[in-house]
Design brief:
Strand order of the largest sheet: 1-2
Low-confidence stretches: 17-75, 77-99
Number of strands: 2
Shape: globular
Distance between the termini: 15 Å
Strand content: under 5%
Helix content: 55-70%
Mean pLDDT: 86
Length: about 525
């Protein structure tokens, strides 16, 4: 039970935080509108210049004054002056025009900038609030601190070598002939370590490469934050820092390259993963499960009730996660086009299907519908639709969200009892099972006959695409499990064990490890 003074304190603090949050959303919306409007105007003016350039230049009339469909009156003498040989005019213009560096597409650049902010907000404060509300009051600050520190740690690794190894050059598997060729199917090169060679003029596609670095780094950071939820209330801070550093270097970065860097999984399986079902969710969930298994259960588990201390925080965190997920999914298109619009729409339809299915399932099991269950259903739908969001139709998105939610409902109940692993905040039960179900169903609902956009690469049927999806899932699970086991074992050796002392665990990590109390009236 939550004591009423504590709940009142939490609600007062939440109320004080709502106003700046609303201002942030207003500023973001205004920024999006102004940037896209500026980019659209710039694009229109460029098109007009291309069509009216010779005439407006000769008449010394600004392009913006002329409508491209408006006829311009030109005298016969002026026509003769403007008449140039068809071949010499472009050649002379090309010779006189100075060479200009390609500029980023304004609309795409602004779009990805805003999406990067949304993905960052999923970790800080989204995951921190979501997890913070689920633990006991004596551990809430430790969970938030872990989320923040490991978010920063992941970005530093990404800056030093992560980006270069993940998105560096790959090799052709069919033509690979030596160890280095095979290595580049798993890792990229180090040509851009410490972001070497990236400048203000460097582009990644149509956007600034700095923009792309930050956007993709946010995926790496949130994957690390997800793992925290399985080991809360009992792991040493230093041990988790070492384990996650190794996991980022030897699990996240290679899988990112294998899937998005045209590496092993992309060439071998031709599997769909638009925004990180395999790279982020399966990868992190398997690591979380392995870490929880090696760490052992919480001391009080099964002896006393361990209810969430503040579900309003979890509800608020879940809402921020959903908002940020629009940047996570739609932003992966890297431009505001039809694919991003479909991903955006499915980021609505998938989670609503998940919320409704979880609520119905929970009612059938318990006779009640809980707020935690509904938020969990939303999260299950979001996870499942992530790999599929730009490849399936809206009806397929609802079905994927609903089926994954039911599977995750079993995951947090049946799977947990079956394995007896204290995955404290159900990281694998939701992110692992949800992403596996979503990845496999992508191979079915991408079919044009079911409203999807079509099959990928060499696949030409549902069966073929499904097998490709299955292959990518199996590789991701095995790879992450092996790396995670070694990472936690090395961390245990370095820190003389993974667990905190029994007295520290009973006192709570807020006070024993950070010297703070989350609520001063406790």
């Amino acid at each position: 039970m939550i004591r009423s003074p504590l709940l009142a304190l939490v609600l007062r603090r939440m109320a004080r935080s709502i106003t700046p949050l609303l201002w942030l959303l207003v500023v973001l919306g205004t920024s999006i509108s102004s940037n896209l409007a500026w980019a659209s105007a710039e694009s229109s003016q460029a098109q007009a210049a291309a069509q009216l350039g010779p005439i407006t230049g000769a008449l010394n009339v600004p392009v913006s004054w002329q409508h491209r469909d408006t006829p311009v009156a030109v005298s016969e003498e002026e026509e003769e002056e403007l008449a140039l040989p068809a071949e010499s005019a472009p050649a002379e213009a090309a010779a006189e025009a100075p060479a200009e560096a390609a500029a980023p597409d304004g609309a795409a650049n602004a779009f990805v900038l805003i999406c990067a902010i949304l993905v960052i907000a999923m970790s800080i404060p989204g995951i921190a609030l979501f997890y913070g509300g689920l633990v006991r009051a004596k551990n809430v600050l430790s969970v938030m601190e872990q989320s923040l520190v490991f978010f920063g740690l992941s970005y530093v690794i990404w800056l030093i070598v992560g980006y270069s190894l993940a998105f560096g050059s790959s090799s052709d598997m069919a033509a690979a002939s030596g160890p280095l060729d095979y290595l580049h199917l798993i890792y990229g090169d180090l040509n851009k370590a410490l972001l070497a060679g990236i400048s203000l003029e460097t582009l990644s596609g149509a956007i600034s490469e700095y923009n792309f670095v930050i956007f993709q780094g946010a995926f790496c950071a949130i994957a690390s934050c997800l793992i925290v939820g399985a080991t809360v209330e009992r792991i040493k801070f230093s041990a988790l820092m070492i384990a996650l550093s190794l996991w980022v270097l030897f699990s996240y970065i290679p899988l990112c390259h294998m899937v998005w860097g045209v590496g092993l999984i992309e060439q071998l399986c031709a599997a769909y993963d638009f925004a990180g079902g395999t790279v982020v969710h399966i990868n992190a969930a398997v690591a979380a499960l392995v870490g929880a298994k090696l760490l052992g259960p919480r001391t009080d588990l099964g002896k006393v009730a361990l209810p969430p201390h503040a579900l309003p925080l979890t509800f608020l965190g879940g809402g921020l996660l959903w908002i940020g997920w629009f940047g996570f999914n739609a932003g992966s298109a890297l431009t505001p086009d039809g694919s991003s619009a479909l991903a955006f729409a499915n980021t609505v339809f998938g989670p609503v299907g998940g919320a409704l299915a979880w609520s119905v399932g929970e009612y059938c099991l318990n006779g009640k519908v809980s707020s935690l269950g509904s938020v969990s259903g939303v999260l299950a739908g979001l996870v499942a639709i992530t790999p599929a969001c730009a490849f399936v139709g809206p009806v397929g998105a609802v079905i994927i969200g609903a089926l994954s939610a039911l599977a995750c409902l079993w995951g947090v109940r049946g799977f947990k009892r079956l394995t007896k692993i204290d995955d404290s905040l159900d990281v694998f039960g939701i992110h692992g099972i949800g992403a596996i179900v979503g990845a496999l169903l992508t191979g079915i609902f991408c079919s044009p006959a079911l409203g999807g956009t079509g099959f990928k690469g060499f696949h030409d049927s549902i069966v073929s695409q499904f097998m490709g999806q299955l292959g990518s899932v199996v590789i991701a699970i095995v790879w992450s499990a092996v790396v995670s086991y070694l990472a936690f074992k090395i961390a245990a050796l370095c820190c003389r064990g993974l667990r905190v002392e029994l007295d520290d665990e009973r006192m709570g990590l807020d006070l024993s490890y950070h010297g703070e109390r989350s609520y001063t009236n406790l």
